[in-house]
Amino acid sequence: MRPGAFQGSGLRIYALLYLVFLYAPILLLPVFAFNSGTIIAFPLKGFTTEWFGQMWGNATLRLALRNSLIIAVSSSVLATCLGIFAARASTRFKFPGKGPIMGFIMLPMVLPEIIVAMSLLVVLLGAGIELSILTVIIGHTLICMPYAIAILSTAFSSLDPSLEEAAFDLGESRWGAFRLITLPLVMPGIISALLISFTISLDEFIIAFFLAGSQPTLPTYIFSQLRFPAQIPMIMALGTVLVALSILLLAIGEYFRRRSLSRSGGKNTGGLM
């Protein structure tokens, strides 16, 4: 066997094992969510949808879901609006300290979330702010904004500047050119940033655990229920719904990201991550 062929086979085996290791736990979620047995183990007992019924009938779960949706919608809108300003400034203008300022804004993307959460907790408590849904929205906006900026910067940088210049030549103001020309062209990128920020906020646990106070969110509720074996099948059903929702939102976000690139004439360089 040629060395190159051996290396190619080894690489394929490694990639297959990696994918199995990465996705097998996720694929097992729906398997046990529809299993009638209360113990998460093989062999399976039978098919049932009882755990999904328990999930929708749980009042605390509904409260946690409502809180998470409020937080996710609010933080995704704030992060995307702030991301529009930052992406616009970084791609269209030159100003002193541009590199350090943008690096500082993008820092939450690489910092450990537990460090961000502890820092926010100390600052908020020191300022006398009571922990609530609002403090979680602040934290989630902080960590979602770098992802929104990364997506929106691609949308703005791939936009042809001559389109705005033509609008200026025709007598439009800067705001008019942005509203009538730029905004519609980057709208798919804005929608993509909204969806990605929503997904990140909905699934985020560490900052919600530190900053939610007595208000439960969906991830913190799931964590609290893992101590009770009788609740595990219902958590499996909930996890199945969350995985399906996350995949759907990411797929829609990727669609709008690719649509933004095609509309603005940019090159598609791959996925979101």
From TrEMBL:
<feature type="transmembrane region" description="Helical">
    <location>
        <begin position="180"/>
        <end position="212"/>
    </location>
</feature>
<protein>
    <submittedName>
        <fullName>Spermidine/putrescine ABC transporter</fullName>
    </submittedName>
</protein>
<dbReference type="InterPro" id="IPR000515">
    <property type="entry name" value="MetI-like"/>
</dbReference>
<feature type="transmembrane region" description="Helical">
    <location>
        <begin position="232"/>
        <end position="253"/>
    </location>
</feature>
<dbReference type="GO" id="GO:0055085">
    <property type="term" value="P:transmembrane transport"/>
</dbReference>
<dbReference type="InterPro" id="IPR051789">
    <property type="entry name" value="Bact_Polyamine_Transport"/>
</dbReference>
<feature type="transmembrane region" description="Helical">
    <location>
        <begin position="101"/>
        <end position="127"/>
    </location>
</feature>
<feature type="domain" description="ABC transmembrane type-1">
    <location>
        <begin position="65"/>
        <end position="253"/>
    </location>
</feature>
<keyword id="KW-1003">Cell membrane</keyword>
<comment type="similarity">
    <text>Belongs to the binding-protein-dependent transport system permease family. CysTW subfamily.</text>
</comment>
<dbReference type="Pfam" id="PF00528">
    <property type="entry name" value="BPD_transp_1"/>
</dbReference>
<dbReference type="GO" id="GO:0005886">
    <property type="term" value="C:plasma membrane"/>
</dbReference>
<keyword id="KW-1133">Transmembrane helix</keyword>
<keyword id="KW-0812">Transmembrane</keyword>
<keyword id="KW-0813">Transport</keyword>
<feature type="transmembrane region" description="Helical">
    <location>
        <begin position="133"/>
        <end position="159"/>
    </location>
</feature>
<feature type="transmembrane region" description="Helical">
    <location>
        <begin position="12"/>
        <end position="34"/>
    </location>
</feature>
<dbReference type="InterPro" id="IPR035906">
    <property type="entry name" value="MetI-like_sf"/>
</dbReference>
<feature type="transmembrane region" description="Helical">
    <location>
        <begin position="69"/>
        <end position="89"/>
    </location>
</feature>
<keyword id="KW-0472">Membrane</keyword>
